Structures are given as structure tokens and as C-alpha cells.
Amino acid sequence: MKEVYDFLKSAGTYYLATVEGDQPRVRPFGTVDIFEDKLYIQTGRSKDVSKQLAENPKAELCAFKDGVWLRVSGELVDDNRTEPKQHMLDNYPDLKAMYSADDDNTQVLYFKNATAVFSSFTAPPRTVNF
């Protein structure tokens, strides 16, 4: 999982896909954190992505860097505790202008039953499960 985190962190931007009804929805994200041995992302509860994940927690993200792309699929689990929210915000201090660990909007989610696949045109795919 650390390798997945390192790749996402160094890529800077990844794209998260969710489903709204029968329509896929994709948007850029940049937050990624490891807390209590789980891979977390962050968003706001007021955003459509939060509502989509509440309806269907299955999601996939994709990032590309240096000729390698990473796809991570699994379920995103809402963790409403203050500690993981604060950990995320401490690692992304710029977010503190918009979010707080004790507000009703900040949402952190971790991957459950995740499969990460590293792919490129020059090597066979490599899978990491966590």
C-alpha cells in the first residue's frame, strides 16, 4: 500500500470515478493519506462525489506518471472520526482554509478491498491488494 501512496503522492493529481445512476462521473483529486494502515482520500460532504459514494461506495481512481499508470479500485468507506480528518488536514495545510476536522463538511474515506494495478507499455501489469 505504501507504494500506491507514494505513486499517487508523486503524481500529484489522480482522477476518481464514481457512478451517478447509470452515468460514470470522473473528477481530479489530489489528496491521499495513510492513517492506521489504510489509504485515505478527502472531499467535502456537500459535493456530488460524496453523495454518489453514499449511494454506491464502489470507486476507481487512476493516475499517470513517467509512462506508468495506476488504477485503484475498491469500496470507499466513510470515516467520520476527527483523528483521520485532522491527520489529512495536517498533511494538506492549504485545505484548512476550507475544511476543519470538526466541521460537518470535511469527509475522509478509506479504500476497502482495494486492488491496485500498475501498468505500462513496457512491462507486464503488477497487482497490489490491500
Features:
Pnp Oxidase, Chain A; 8-stranded antiparallel β-sheet; 130 residues; alpha+beta
Radius of gyration, taken over Cα atoms and rounded to an integer in Å = 14 Å
Q: What is the H-and-E element order? A: HEEEEHEEHEE
CATH topology: Pnp Oxidase, Chain A
Q: Shape, please?
A: globular
The count of domains is 1
Which homologous superfamily in CATH is the superfamily?
A: Electron Transport, Fmn-binding Protein, Chain A
Quick one: how many beta strands? 8
CATH architecture: Roll
Mean pLDDT: 98
| Straight-line distance between termini | 6 Å
CATH class: Mainly Beta
Strand content: over 45%
Distinct helical segment count: 3
Biggest β-sheet strands, sense, barrel: 8 strands, antiparallel
Residue stretches low in confidence (pLDDT < 50, at least 5 long) are: none
Strand-pairing-aware structural class: alpha+beta
The level of helicity is 10-25%
Question: How is the topology of this model organized?
Answer:
Blueprint lengths: L1 H10 L2 E7 L2 E7 L3 E3 L2 E7 L3 H8 L2 E8 L2 E12 L2 H10 L14 E14 L6 E4 L1
Antiparallel strand pairs: 1-2, 1-5, 3-4, 4-7, 5-6, 6-7, 7-8
Characterise the protein shown here:
By secondary structure, the protein is of the alpha+beta class. The protein has one domain: Electron Transport, Fmn-binding Protein, Chain A (Pnp Oxidase, Chain A, Roll), CATH 2.30.110. It has helices at 2-11, 48-55, 82-91, and strands at 14-20, 23-29, 33-35, 38-44, 58-65, 68-79, 106-119, 126-129. Strands 1, 2, 3, 4, 5, 6, 7 and 8 form an eight-stranded antiparallel beta sheet that branches. The N and C termini lie close together (6 Å).
